[in-house]
Design brief:
The protein is an alpha/beta fold. 40% of the residues lie in helices and 15% in strands. The longest helix is centred in the middle third of the chain and has 30 residues. Bound molecules: thiamine diphosphate and magnesium ion. The site of magnesium ion (MG) has 5 residues, from strand 6.
């Protein structure tokens, strides 16, 4: 006989704390091992993230892309170890770009051991498309919060279109965590203002109020009344004074769930580096490993075995499995059954949802696209675009978008009967009004696209600068977003150099994976859209003219379908065999055609290449590229109302580029064309000079 020592029972409260400390110590160990990273905020926010995930969120780790899952956005992306820990501990499964489930963990313990190393699924910052379960790429502060507004708009729109009595197919919520940095960034203010206006009550931002950023105390540069600011935006503002109080956090989240008509903002007072005796509440906890000795002391303060590394104690994974795992699985099962009966009652709507989720297009989506007859006077790129957009929005039910207050100028307003305007009371509208907020517009378009609706934004091309950081993320995330940029060059002459893009084409062409298209006439606009709409994993920008461009007679010139190859031979000398090649995009295509006619008349064998997209052209075979730009023909003139930067790539070292080397000027277009050399005679002169035929 012996006496049995009774072990302390493992209560749920203890398991909560054990789980939280697992997140903390995994984060600490990963940063320590990588010798880089951000331990302090995961240490502080582990209870918050734990509560959101294990007590609140409807998320099934078995299927991280289930359409009605709640979304979680870590806008302070430097705290990525929070996400890697929780994705690991919940056993979230990986899916691939074709939405297939791969049967392996999204983030393994080995990935966490290899935090920030090549190929690890625990990279420095959350990366959509690289790690399943990441809802959006974050790291550039402010982007996550702004993107979340797009997710919230999408949920409202999806619910309006697809939910039916008894079929709440889309009723998910968006949980967002952000820090001081996110709230200092302008893009967050733009987005919060719009979210308040739209009354997005499906959206909750939790603000990590720790008074610390990299340089030290926020008193250095950030002393505004954040609560008053969000109240002024029309948000419901809550405060939780202790980031370690799970019940109060949970209560605040339940207030969010029951708040109607406005988004929720929770101010959470926290201590960066919580538990570290020497680094808590200091900037030193933000962005560097704690150091071996401090790690030991910190673990001791958590009651953790000091020497253990990457420890996941027994019971922790199971605790997540019985929390978020069980709740998410039940929710997804329920939804799947609901969707099956929905499919019986509403087969067409169900089919739309299927297609949208796979980023497919409905049959016949391009059937009604216009064909523009030859017309010397022509039509502006933006006007051709307007016709196309109105067709597409009718044939693709989930295609929607809008402008940053330039709808009447961009011609992007959807004008057909029933298009509607998205507002708090009319969430089925397809015209979005972003207000004069280009940066958040592009981020919101990302959020819409992440939610699988097909979305576009619009503004003047010059203001692509204001949207670029989010467009860069569209490309990094491989999202099929669209931005329609009009007033592509000097076409609004009198507005002057503040409104005349110069370096913008070069700048956008430099973004890897972004399709930049500058069509040369109305039919090229149609073909540009036809190409862009079929993209599933690439963003595109359309760069369109304000002024009319002649519609080329396609019986004389090559079909506009050549747009799909990025560049194509528009016109050749009789019998082919050119001696000089004129390359142009956009408004300069018809200019090149004029020059071409003059050269032919002068007995010079010229070819015109319309090159709406460098990016698409670069992806053609060498054979095709050589057929358009034969290597033997080195006399080449490129003409484009934009910076000459980069054109050497196509004209070679002996070619000529007629483009911009300075800013523009305020004057009528005609005067600008003359001043900056965008005239047929300048093109012919350059060609003749190259051929030694002056
Ligand atoms: C747009 C942008 N600017 C600068 C940085 C560099 N940066 C990363 S974290 C950080 C400080 C963020 O402070 P806070 O959001 O309060 O985070 P905490 O240290 O409290 O976790 C800065 C400046 C960035 N990631 N993104
Ligand atoms: Mg901070």
């Amino acid at each position: 006989m012996s006496v049995t020592t009774v072990a302390e029972p493992m209560t749920d409260t203890k398991l909560d704390q054990l789980s939280i400390n697992t997140i903390r110590t995994l984060s600490i160990d990963a940063v320590q091992q990588a010798k880089s990273g951000h331990p302090g905020t995961p240490m502080a926010l582990a209870p918050l993230v734990y509560t959101i995930w294990n007590r609140e969120m409807r998320f099934d780790p078995e299927d991280p892309i289930w359409p009605n899952r709640d979304r979680f956005v870590l806008s302070n992306g430097h705290a990525s170890m929070l996400l890697w820990s929780v994705l690991h501990l919940t056993g979230t499964r990986a899916v691939n770009a074709d939405y297939e489930r791969l049967g392996r963990a999204s983030v393994s313990l080995e990935d966490i051991r290899r935090f920030r190393q090549l190929e690890s699924k625990a990279p420095g910052h959350p990366e959509y498309h690289w790690v399943s379960g990441v809802e959006t790429t974050t790291g550039p502060l402010g982007q996550g919060v702004a993107t979340s507004v797009g997710m919230a708009i999408a949920q409202k729109w999806l619910a309006d279109r697809y939910n039916r009595p008894g079929f709440a197919l889309f009723d998910y919520r968006i949980y967002v965590v952000c820090g001081d940095g996110c709230l200092m960034e302008g893009v967050a203010s733009e987005a919060a203002s719009l979210a308040g206006h739209l009354g997005l009550d499906n959206l909750c931002w939790v603000y990590d109020n720790n008074h610390i950023t990299i340089e030290g105390q926020t008193s250095l540069a950030f002393t505004e009344d954040v609560a008053a600011r969000f109240m002024a935006y029309g948000w419901n503002v809550l405060r939780v004074g202790d980031a370690n109080d799970l019940d109060r956090i949970q209560h605040a989240l339940s207030v969010f769930r029951t708040t109607k008509g406005r988004p929720t903002f929770i101010i959470l007072d926290s201590h960066i580096g919580y538990g570290s005796p020497h680094k808590q509440d200091t900037a030193a906890a933000h962005g560097e490993p704690l150091g071996d000795e401090e790690v030991r002391l910190t673990k001791r303060s958590y009651g953790w075995p000091e020497e253990a590394q990457f420890l996941v104690p027994d019971g922790v994974r199971e605790h997540f499995a019985t929390g978020v795992g069980a709740r998410g699985a039940a929710a997804r099962r329920g939804w799947t059954a609901l969707f099956a009966s929905y499919r019986v009652e509403y087969p067409e709507l169900a089919n739309e949802i299927d297609q949208m989720q796979r980023r497919d297009l409905p049959a016949g989506w391009d059937r009604n696209l216009p064909v523009f007859p030859a017309d010397a006077k022509g039509i502006a790129g933006r006007d051709a675009s307007s016709k196309v957009l109105n067709v597409l929005a009718q044939s693709i039910p989930w295609f929607l978008g809008g402008s940053a207050d330039l709808g009447p100028s961009n011609k992007t307003t959807l004008t057909y009967e029933g298009a509607g305007h998205f507002q708090a009371g009319t969430p089925g509208g397809k015209n979005l009004h972003f207000g004069i907020r280009e940066h958040s517009m592009a981020a919101i378009v990302n959020g819409l696209s992440l939610s699988k609706v097909r979305a576009f934004g619009a503004t003047f091309f010059i203001f692509s600068d204001y949207a670029r950081p989010a467009i860069r993320l569209s490309a990094l995330m491989e999202l099929p977003t669209i931005v329609v940029f009009t007033h592509d060059a000097m076409g609004d002459g009198e507005d002057g150099p503040t409104h005349q893009p110069v370096e913008h084409l070069a700048s956008l062409r430099a973004i890897p994976g972004l399709v930049t298209l500058r069509p040369g006439d109305a039919n090229e606009v149609v073909e540009a859209y036809r190409y862009v709409m079929q993209l599933r994993h690439q963003p595109a920008v359309l760069v369109l003219s304000r002024q009319p461009l002649p519609t080329l007679d396609r019986r004389t010139y090559a079909p506009a379908a050549g747009v799909a190859r990025g560049a194509y031979v528009l016109a050749d000398p009789p019998g082919g065999n050119p001696e000089v090649i004129l390359i142009a995009s956009g408004s300069e295509v018809s200019l090149a055609v004029e020059a071409h006619d003059k050269l032919l008349a002068a007995g010079i064998r010229s070819r015109v290449v319309s090159m709406p997209s460098w990016d698409i052209f670069e992806h053609q075979t060498q054979e095709y590229r050589d057929s358009v730009l034969p290597p033997t023909v080195t006399a080449r003139v490129a003409v484009e109302q934009a910076s000459t930067f980069g054109w050497e790539r196509y004209v070679g070292s002996s070619g000529r580029v007629i483009g911009m080397k300075t800013f523009g000027a305020s004057a009528p277009l005609k005067a600008l064309q003359e001043k900056f050399g965008f005239e047929p005679d300048r093109v012919t002169a350059a060609a003749k000079e190259l051929l030694g035929k002056q």
